[in-house]
């Protein structure tokens, strides 16, 4: 949900290999950048990109919370400075698209925060990436105001975390209470809020994800999400968002991009036959597109997930 897109570039880089210590397959990732303008006030944003993989390959075995990788030679992927540093994404099988934080590892075994009991006995493909953080998204940005602008993220337990801009900090951000250098993880498919004292522009770059992303949706909390699509605003009706939603209960809300972040529309899931409908008239809606790298709100009555398609493999 952005005010305007000044530029977008997607470049096919052939033969690019991983930059990590890990052994990985040679790939041809799509890399690019996007410049997005924001207004004075509050803007809901997404990222649209991910960091390069440090490992891509097959799992040789899976337990409830560990993954053993084939041919891996991993360095330390555990938490750093109080934040999860890396995640494992399952890229094949029944849990394709699930993202799991790495809590510790050996050279070839990952211990993850999540339940893998549903894929015991299988050997899915796995990709390991560094998390994208607020410091990455706003690196080099000069249009933010020190000790005025903040970024806020919402968590699954209903709490929020925020960081305050301080360009002299090692991360570019500080804890608003202690003023110590701080940072925040932005997960694939997670939206966030930028509160800014002035208008400006942010340039985000990285790789375009070529696999679907499973985005968790939790009951009774703020699910601020994004389709992370830097090149398109996909249709609400064909997004797959309603697949696991409760009929005539769960909703999607969109917001303005003028800095007010005021709710502009609400769409009710009317079931697979009708798709998303107008909650007042119960008539089907058409011509509604989700913001490609903007944030919108999904409200659900029970914990569920949304499997969002890749921008390049819809």
Verbal overview:
This protein has 314 residues and is mainly beta. Among the domains are: 55-130; 213-308, no CATH class. 1% of the residues lie in helices and 38% in strands. The chain contains one helix and 23 strands. It has one helix at 134-137, and strands at 4-12, 30-38, 41-45, 55-62, 66-69, 86-90, 99-105, 109-113, 125-130, 132-133, 150-154, 160-165, 173-174, 185-186, 192-196, 200-207, 213-217, 223-225, 251-255, 263-269, 276-277, 296-299, 304-308. The protein has a six-stranded antiparallel β-barrel with strand order 4-5-8-7-6-9. It has a five-stranded antiparallel beta sheet with strand order 3-15-11-12-13, with no helix packed on it. Strands 18-22-19-20-21 form a five-stranded antiparallel beta sheet, with no helix packed on it. Strand 11 (150-154) and strand 12 form a beta hairpin. The protein is globular and about 55 Å long. Residues 1-26 have low confidence and may be disordered.
Write the layout of secondary structure elements.
Layout: E1 4-12, E2 30-38, E3 41-45, E4 55-62, E5 66-69, E6 86-90, E7 99-105, E8 109-113, E9 125-130, E10 132-133, H1 134-137, E11 150-154, E12 160-165, E13 173-174, E14 185-186, E15 192-196, E16 200-207, E17 213-217, E18 223-225, E19 251-255, E20 263-269, E21 276-277, E22 296-299, E23 304-308
Antiparallel strand pairs: 1-2, 2-16, 3-15, 4-5, 4-9, 5-8, 6-7, 6-9, 7-8, 10-14, 11-12, 11-15, 12-13, 17-23, 18-22, 19-20, 19-22, 20-21
């Amino acid at each position: 949900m952005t005010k305007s897109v000044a530029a977008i570039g997607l470049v096919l880089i052939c033969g690019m290999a991983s930059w990590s210590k890990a052994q990985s397959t040679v790939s041809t990732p799509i890399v690019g950048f996007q410049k997005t303008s924001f207004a004075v006030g509050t803007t809901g944003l997404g990222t649209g990109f991910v960091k390069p993989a440090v490992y891509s390959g097959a799992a040789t075995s899976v337990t409830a919370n560990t993954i053993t990788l084939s041919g891996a030679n991993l360095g330390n992927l555990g938490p750093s400075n109080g934040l999860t540093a890396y995640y494992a994404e399952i890229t094949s099988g029944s849990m394709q698209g699930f993202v799991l934080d790495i809590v510790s590892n050996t050279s070839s075994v990952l211990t993850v925060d999540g339940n893998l009991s549903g894929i015991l006995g299988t050997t899915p493909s796995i990709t390991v990436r560094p998390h994208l953080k607020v410091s990455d998204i706003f690196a080099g940005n000069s249009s933010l105001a020190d000790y005025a602008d903040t970024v806020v993220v919402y968590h699954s337990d209903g709490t929020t975390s925020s960081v305050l801009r301080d360009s002299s900090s090692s991360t570019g951000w500080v804890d608003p209470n202690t003023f110590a250098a701080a940072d925040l993880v932005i997960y694939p498919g997670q939206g966030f809020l930028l509160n800014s004292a002035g208008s400006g522009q942010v340039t985000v770059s990285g790789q375009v994800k070529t696999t679907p992303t499973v985005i968790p949706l939790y009951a009774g909390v703020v699910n601020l999400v994004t389709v992370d699509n830097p090149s398109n605003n996909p249709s609400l009706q064909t997004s797959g968002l309603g697949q696991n939603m409760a009929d005539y209960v769960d909703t999607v809300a969109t917001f303005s991009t003028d800095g007010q972040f005021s709710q502009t529309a609400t769409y009710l899931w009317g079931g697979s036959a009708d798709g998303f409908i107008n909650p007042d008239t119960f008539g089907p809606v058409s011509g509604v597109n989700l913001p490609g790298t903007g944030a919108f709100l999904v409200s659900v009555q029970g914990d569920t997930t949304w499997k969002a398609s890749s921008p390049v493999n819809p």
